[in-house]
Structure formats: C-alpha cells, structure tokens
Amino acid sequence: VAAMMVQASSAADRSWSPKAAGTYDWNTGSNWGGTVPTSDDTAKLAEPNGSQKIEGRGEASVLDINNGSPSKTREFAGDLTVGSFIFRQGLMNLTGSLSVTGSGGTYSRVGTSQNAPGGTTLQSLHVYGKLSAPGAHALCVARGNDDKSNNANGYLCLHDGGELVLNTTDPTVSMSGLMLARTSGSSEASYLNAAFVQEGGQAKIGRLMAGFETASRATVAVLGGVFELPFYTGTRFRIGHKGFGIFQQLGGTACVLTNCPTLGVTTAFRNDMFELGGGELTTSGAKGAAFYACGGRFQDGGDFYVQGNPSAKGTTSLPPAVA
C-alpha cells in the first residue's frame, strides 16, 4: 500500500524582492523570492531604492511596509485582502482597494514607533480608491509604545472619489474604528501626532477617538465629501480624550448619529453623542479640545457634549441640525 505524505502549509514571512523603481505585479513569484504570500503569511516590503507601483490581486495575514522616506512612494493599484496592515514610514498611495478582515479588537497602523525607538517616524497614507475594515477592527494613526522615547506621526488623507469604511459591524468594541494617537498599552506615554484629512469622497466610521493619550495631538479636518459617523448603540465619537483633539470643518457634509447621506434625522439618541473633550483629567492634567465650523454642513442627530469638567461633565445639547 502506497502512502502519501502531505505537508500542511504554515505561516511564513514573505519578503518583497524588487528594489528598483518601477511597476510590478503582486502575483509574480520572483517578486517574493519564489513564493507569493497566502492568507496565512506576513508580506514584508522593505525600503525600496525608488518609487514603486504594485498591481494585481493578492492576500496576506499581515501587510508590513516600510518605505523609509516620503521620497520613496509605493502605490497599490490592485486588490488586496489582509487581516491587518502596518505602514511604518514613508508615503503610500492606495488607488486600488485594500480590504481588512480583522475583528475582535485587532488593529492596523499608519505610523508606528515600533520600528525606530528613540526616533520620530512619519507615515502618510493617501486613499484614492477604497480602504475597508468593516469588522470590529481599529485603524490606528500614529501608534506608539508605552515608552516616552518612542514617538510616532501618522497622516491619513481621503481624496475625491475615495472611500473609507471603518467598523460598521460592532462599534461597541473600544479598540475599533478610527483611533488617532493611541499607544500600544495603558500607560500615559509616547509623543504622538495624528491627523485625518478628508478632501473628498465618503467616509463611514463607526467609532472615533482623536487625541487618545496624554502626550498626543490629533486633528480631524473635513474639507469636502461626506464624513459620516453613523448611529450605533454604545458607540463613541470623541475629540480630545486624554490628549488634545481638534475637529475642523471647512467644507463638505459631516453627519453625526444620523441616517446620512440622506441627511434625515430619525430621532435624538440620548445615550450616544458627539463629545468634545473627555471629561477627565490625566496625571499630568494636560488635555484639551476644539471645534471649528468654518464651512460646509454639520448635522448632529443626537447630543453634542462638551465635557470639560471632570467631576460634573458640563454638557451642552445643541439643536439636531447645525448648519
């Protein structure tokens, strides 16, 4: 009786081989040292010598990219499906689609201190296509360690025609949605700077925390398009948690706790609100938040809370619609 031994495939690190500037295909084996990543693998793309464009359909468990500097841009023009991603340094342009399947409080990172202890990293992700993470998964912009020697800067920009979808499944999970300037643990550490800028397109974000840690600064700027924070029971939209947060609108339409983009308000949701300031002091006592409505339309279907007093959470309820 002949027996056949079948060796099951196991997760592995697959490293991107091309260094020169140019256009490449994800599914070419030689670009990965012979083996194209599968959904179990970590796909690692180290610093190239010039700008690269990557086409084709692909998958990975983790997509780990370090471009090194903004002068070395990578463009993803194909369709990728990953469990999570790490964009460490440099400039990334997404003109195709990136689907993230992670859930259960997992997260992806744009700008992280974990690759350069003691230094300052910079990562910019520009979305012209579609970035979708509909599960209970967080997109962390400027993700630091529990160590004040580690700094991180992250920038996320949504452009005309682009689409951003973050946690439309279970926004009650605290580590989900869009997290701006949050460390990898519970201590008040790291110096983090994060920004989300929407120039156009449509964003649908189930949970938003901007300026999460004490030594952090975060900005949300809506310049155009539709910025939607839809209603879900138990979610949270907070500008300025333990650090400093700014919400600025110069154009477009911002919809909070409504059934946007139709701009209809069904009811006032008293248990869920748009919060300006965290209503709590940190050990250093440093925190703050600001809201600037300079253009466009801001529509709030629930309460607008201003929580500057840690003991009495001063609340300000605005009318359902603020033009």
Summarize the structure.
By secondary structure, the chain is mainly beta.
Structural notes for this entry:
Mean pLDDT is 81; it is low at 1-8, 115-119, 261-271 and 308-323. The protein has strands spanning 13-15, 22-25, 42-45, 52-55, 57-65, 73-76, 79-87, 90-94, 97-100, 106-112, 120-127, 130-133, 137-144, 151-158, 163-166, 177-183, 191-198, 202-205, 208-210, 216-222, 226-229, 237-239, 244-256, 269-276, 288-300, 302-306, 321-322. It has 323 residues and is mainly β. The protein has a 27-stranded mixed β-sheet that branches. The chain contains no helices and 27 strands. 0% of the residues lie in helices and 50% in strands.
Task: List its traits.
323 residues, 27 strands, disordered N terminus, disordered C terminus
Radius of gyration of CA atoms, rounded to a whole number: 21 Å
Task: Give the total of beta strands.
Answer: 27
Can you write the helix and strand succession as a string? EEEEEEEEEEEEEEEEEEEEEEEEEEE
Largest sheet: 27 strands, mixed
Tell me, briefly, the overall form.
elongated
Number of helices: 0
Beta-strand content estimate: over 45%
The parts where pLDDT drops under 50 for at least 5 residues are 1-8, 115-119, 261-271, 308-323
Task: Report, as a whole number of angstroms, the end-to-end distance.
Answer: 79 Å
Oligomer kind = single chain
Helix content: under 10%
Helix vs. strand class? mainly beta
Mean pLDDT: 81
